[in-house]
Amino acid sequence: MKWTRDLVFCTFFLHAVSVSAINPGFKGKITSRGINYGCQIVKSVLQNRLLNMEIPNISGIKYTNVLHQLQYNINRITISNVNLPDMNIILVPNLGLKVAMSNGYIETNGNWQIKANIFRTAGTVKAQIKSIAISFYLKFGKDNTGKPIVSMTDCASCISKLQVYVSGRASWLYNLIIRWYEPSLRRYLSDEICLELQKIFTEKISPFLQTVPVTKKIDKCVGIDYSLTSLPEVAKDSLILPLKGEFYNLLHRADVPFSAPPLDFLVDYDRMLYIGFSEYFFNTAGYVFNSVGDLSINITDDMLPENSHIHLDTLTIGTLIPQVKKMYPVMKMKLHLVSDSAPVVTFLNGKIILTTSGDVFAFAILPNSTLVALFSIKLNAQITTTIGIKDDKITGQLTLDRIQLSLKKSNIGPFQVSCLQTAIDFLVSIVILPRINAALDNGYPLPLIDHFTLSNLIVQPHKNFLLVATDFTYT
Ligand SMILES: *[C@@H]1O[C@H](CO)[C@@H](O)[C@H](O)[C@H]1NC(C)=O
Ligand SMILES: *[C@@H]1O[C@H](CO)[C@@H](O)[C@H](O)[C@H]1NC(C)=O
Ligand SMILES: *[C@@H]1O[C@H](CO)[C@@H](O)[C@H](O)[C@H]1NC(C)=O
């Protein structure tokens, strides 16, 4: 019966694995076009470093019968030209990227001196190194704070053609100089190319990746967690970065009472980066802002537009509910709106719908500033949301679809709540939403690395998530 035990064990194990996998709230996919752009930057850094490289003197002593001893010194070797024209990147799924550069060209210039017992002579030497091939692997991981790590392995460089041109007076020495210079330069450069690449990754790119913001603070209470939930994954068409994508309470973090649905989408070659924002991302925002008590507002008459024909006083409201005017003639009013649950975002047929509910408490303000509770109404609102990307931020705009009202409590006797519909629609559209929109228009930060900007954006709502396709530029 061993196999049944194994089967039970396997089922249990698979179950445990599927339970422990956390779906990301934010998933980035860097396409081969984006990867290529990134590798071009690495390549140009390598070219620059090679151009500024100091090649050590090549010197030694050669004993000959005729002249007894020759001291040679090849020095002031500089690289005057570097060109690495061809680069090919292969995505090796589950392993990493293989980067292969070919047809590279380097030109060096230098001086030579030879001293013997009876003479000394000097000249210049130039080398053209053709058909340089460089290859290495890039592997991706994450550190314990959830930031991405990249490491370079298996670097190899190969120089197939190296042509040395010597000039000076003693042409009979040229062959000796070539014989001294050629193997040393070949060995030095092929080692140095991989060493320089290694330095670029450890000294430049790794510190740079440390600037990836895994948490972005929004205000004193709320932040966004952009840490990697699992290792970056190399797929056949992209490098996948699964990030937590969750708003949370900075003061005391707690699990949200819902989980992220699976998030996957296709990419093509049109853009460098595709980002999926799960509905989870937006819903954690609503949940956290609601839990820290940010989703309440008081409306008073002075918040209405100056030319408004509606006023928040017992005179105006009294034309809709006569008791108000009768019981509290000519007084200002105040409305206190508070959400009673977190707003929920749903992606429906290409639209993003926000549904929210709450209570409106209406007060009359007595001449001595005391508030008298008049009535309270339960409110359900459906709001259409437009999401955009501006600079390095995600922004939003809300427009009211409809509000449903029902009376909860009245201290002024019964009345038809429908008579308040127009006034409430007006207050929400004209007073509340513009305030929320101004905040949403300021935006919430994306997990971008310094010096990268986005361009050519496409924003598309899908089922369960928002897809953003974009190019990026390093400046
Ligand atoms: C290389 O050779 C030049 C010229 O002989 C000399 O000035 C320089 O000090 C040498 N550099 C080193 C590091 O030996
Ligand atoms: C709104 O008014 C209520 C009732 O007067 C008060 O308790 C609350 O603190 C006010 N809220 C804000 C955000 O001003
Ligand atoms: C304000 O006026 C009302 C009615 O005149 C009165 O009942 C209440 O006690 C007053 N409150 C204060 C704080 O003076």
From TrEMBL:
GO terms for molecular function: lipid binding. Pfam families: LBP_BPI_CETP, LBP_BPI_CETP_C. GO terms for cellular component: extracellular space. Residues 1-21 form the signal peptide. It comes from the Eukaryota. Keywords: Antibiotic, Antimicrobial, Disulfide bond, Glycoprotein, Immunity, Innate immunity, Secreted, Signal. Disulfide bonds join 155-194. Gene3D superfamilies: Bactericidal permeability-increasing protein, domain 1, Bactericidal permeability-increasing protein, domain 2. Coiled coil: none annotated. SMART domains: BPI1, BPI2. The cytotoxic action of BPI is limited to many species of Gram-negative bacteria; this specificity may be explained by a strong affinity of the very basic N-terminal half for the negatively charged lipopolysaccharides that are unique to the Gram-negative bacterial outer envelope. The N-terminal region may be exposed to the interior of the granule, whereas the C-terminal portion may be embedded in the membrane. During phagocytosis and degranulation, proteases may be released and activated and cleave BPI at the junction of the N- and C-terminal portions of the molecule, providing controlled release of the N-terminal antibacterial fragment when bacteria are ingested. This is Bactericidal permeability-increasing protein.
